[in-house]
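Following up on my earlier message about adenosine-5'-triphosphate. Here are the inputs again, as you asked, copied directly from the submission form:
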Amino acid sequence: AQHAQNAAVFMTLDDGTQLSYVDFITRVARIAHVLQDAGVKPGDRVVVQAPKLMDTIALYGAAVQAGAVYLPLNTAYTQTELAYFIEDAAPALVVCDASNADEIAAICSDDTNVLTLSKDGSGSLSTQANDKPTTFETVPRGPDDLAALLYTSGTTGRSKGAMLSHKNLLSNARALTDLWQITDADRLIHALPIFHTHGLFVAMNTSLLAGAQLRFMAAFDVDTIVDEMPTSTMLMGVPTFYTRLLGDARLTKDLVANMRLFVSGSAPLLAETHTAFEDRTGHRILERYGMTETNMITSNPFDGERLAGTVGYPLPGTEVEITDNGAPVAAGEIGMIEVRGDNVFQGYWNMPEKTAEELRDTGFFITGDLGVKTEDGRIAIVGREKDLIISGGYNIYPKEIEDVINDIDGVSESAVFGVPHPDFGESVLAAVVLEDTTVTADAIAARVEPHLARFKHPRRYIITDELPRNTMGKVQKNVLRTEHST
Ligand code: ATP
Ligand code: MG
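Thanks, got it. Here's what our run produced:
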């Protein structure tokens, strides 16, 4: 609201349209009226499966201003998937593309309204908003009231709804804005989807808080990013953004002369990418770690060493413990990553048992990720507990093997996973994507074996064109396990 007095630019869209902070706040107010008129009451869920548009962000603001709970859904979700989310969340309102409206209306209960917001910006939501008053009295909410219900990416199973309070979101946005020194002099290239914690909360909430500018791209596109870097200061991305940029010869030190920060997260950044990016641009990518349930947990330092293969220190206000059966382990030992702080969610929607299993009475959340803490408090992620392979009684961490495989010339990436084995419990397999297709499975085995104890050697290397990924680009090891279990 402090920015409402000036006409500072908030967003620049792909077609060059600019939207000021004043315009944005006006649009938010108008849409908040639409929500209220559609019967949305404080605490009600507003489900949004809409394209990445300026009005979609205004709708997020409007839901919050009207005291509702914003619930964005991946635009790739199909009708069957939507039916699950809509039934689970029981929203008062669904906003979707006009082309899906009839099908969505059919799966909604009689208490749910449907409004539309289509790719070209048209639809009943925008039409109704155009006629509404330009101010809206903000519905008061407390720090523990819900602001959003965000479903996890569904990498390891069915997506779960994480209940996020105002305090959860605000504390994290403040911590990140401070740490990364985001100000109204920044211009962020926003190329992430806005239905996920990274693009919606990490990128939007920090920008809104700092009064920064956004170059709001409808989708990731190398050419556009190359065009925008000379006049921008920050990029937030997933690791594939960086590998794709590295694949373009126009990425040079000169091109990024005005950029001050490159952030990566949502999936592990290969050390190789980190090094290659520094060689080409002089910038060390800042890797951070977080999840839907906790917002961001750790970050590499803004000032100070950014180390490849680590996710840095806990954010101010966030505690991280590495535990074995709930008891902290020594520095250097692998254990479960547990997190406590204002950033940690209020529990899973409609899943009291799962919440009780993962959220301790002490306030610590059991993340499901395994990690190590160094003596000086840096965290490195080892992988998900669900991906841990236990073979012949030994714990095998896939990442250790993947690191060795990925280091081989001609290998582009790999995924190591366990499949059931009658004697050993599980055995180790590796799916490998090649850069140089003349590399053979035998050659890979010969390179890997000297580096690793015998029980860690993959029993088979499956050469494949690509790894199975979910719509967030995360590798789905459960798919590999199912495909290759015999
Ligand atoms: P689901 O919980 O439904 O199986 P998901 O865990 O992939 O899906 P998200 O909340 O989107 O859903 O992702 C959080 C997870 O992403 C973390 O638990 C962690 O495993 C991984 N992750 C995030 N950032 C990093 C990072 N920098 N390095 C490695 N892994 C990361
Ligand atoms: Mg998860």
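One observation from looking it over: The first helix runs from residue 21 to 37. Hope that helps, and feel free to reply on this thread.
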